[in-house]
Amino acid sequence: MKTTSKLPLDMIYHWEATIGDSLYLTQPIGNGQVDEFTWRRAADEAQRMAAYLKSLDLPVGSSIGLISKNCAQWVMADWAIWMSGYVSVPIYPTLNATTVGYILEHSECKALFVGKLDDWDMMKPGVPETLHCISFPSSPPTDFITWNDIIRDTAPLEGKVKREADELATLVYTSGSTGQPKGVMLSFGNMAFAAEGGTQTLGLSPNERMLSYLPLAHVFERTFVELGSLYNGFQLYFAESMDTFVADVQRAQPTLFLSVPRLWVKFQHGVLQKLPQKKLNLLLKIPVVSGVIKKKILNGLGLGKVKLAGSGSAPLSNDVLNWYRSLGLELLEGYGMSENLAYSHMNKPGRSRIGYVGEALPGVEVRISDNGEVLIKSPATMMGYFKDEERTRETMTEDGFLKTGDKGELDEMGRLKLTGRTKEMFKTSKGKYIAPAALENRLMANQSIEMVCVSGANQTNPFALVLLNENLRAQMADPAVRKTVEAELNTLREQVNHAVDPHEKLAFITVVTDEWSIENSFLTPTLKLKRNVVEAAYESQVEDWYGQRKPVIWQ
Fold first, then answer.
1. pTM assigned to the model
2. Bridge partners of 165?
3. What is the structure's pLDDT at 179?
């Protein structure tokens, strides 16, 4: 793989000098209005903020926190932290005060940018009163010094700052599906390698447009959106809110669109509410009408100009992938971790295989260990875990491969299939191992289901907890609808059981009425299920459910 050896700061200066007057960041500011930043303006504001941060006279290499939903200032603050010789520490904008406090303390943050947040009052107790804070224009009301005041009153940092490839650039705290989040140390060299490899694989150019709405605190968005734009010079748009999301997508007219499985499923459900599947199938069979319908649906989602659509963070069911492909959108799954900047595997256009997360990206080595664990090695692999050498040693092999914790297998073309988590597997009372992910993927193929968790350690057979889609949840008070759903789930259970080994057969499906959300800690900030939290929430009811001996149980 060819690399330019240009680090993130080099790219900022490059675009400022070559296409300084081109639009880079488009930030909604309410009432359909936007604030637009050229490359020159973005670089200038970052240099002014860097000069301010240096004036705080913090120790070299200090950590600076960044807690905000995605916005133009998020990107510029990241640059400013690097320009001032410091390390950026992104924090998810949905975490509770305890976790915010833990990350700020563990990372030894010396200052904090506070931006666009839905529930600052919930998070604020986790921020020490002595911590120096700076507020973005989109932040909740605070008495902190403001971004705009600093930009107005501070002269830009002079000269071009040079950071070395092996210098620590950022601490990314994993979303923590179990236990306290870990601080993943990523260097400028890690970032450059991932950005250039992604560019080469996707064939990116300065003509792309992307909407940035998945959390920038997560490496998936950081690598393919922030760094992707930085290494290719294309324009970024931001979303204002979920209420304006469709309008935000329509404004951006993205050519690249990345999302996570839960949102792809929600988009699908939204379409099917207006156009039921049977009617859609019929329309797609009519040659003259088919193309019009496909175009209308994709344009309605704001995805009419998309040339590449990606999904990551968790597995997406085969049925959902096929549904989008029936509309002419080749939805490509990828795979990566915080520990390698999400730079690992991706399906390639025309070479994808349903059920697989794709081929190794340029410069990535992969092998499967004797116990079936996927091991990954590349120049994008982390420097280690911050202040945790023991865990770093546990996670790396002696020859530098990252132990992913995922079980997998490779096909004849080197495409990777994930078959479960090494730590999520559990034993039944018969001593048989169950890989819950495989069963969950089968259940998620049903469009009535939004999320599922397969459990049942030390029981005769596993069972499934199922959260129905939002539309159905609203109709559960209707006995007729409930009866129909129960029959559908029982049929689904029988179909799954017919396809799996005896020890994997589901004893029953329990339909839960609770909301599984980030707010109640059932989901991580990237919408992954916190399996241990979900299982603990229903633990006291499990024995009763097995005792009922019914195929479908309502919680």
1. 0.83
2. none
3. 62
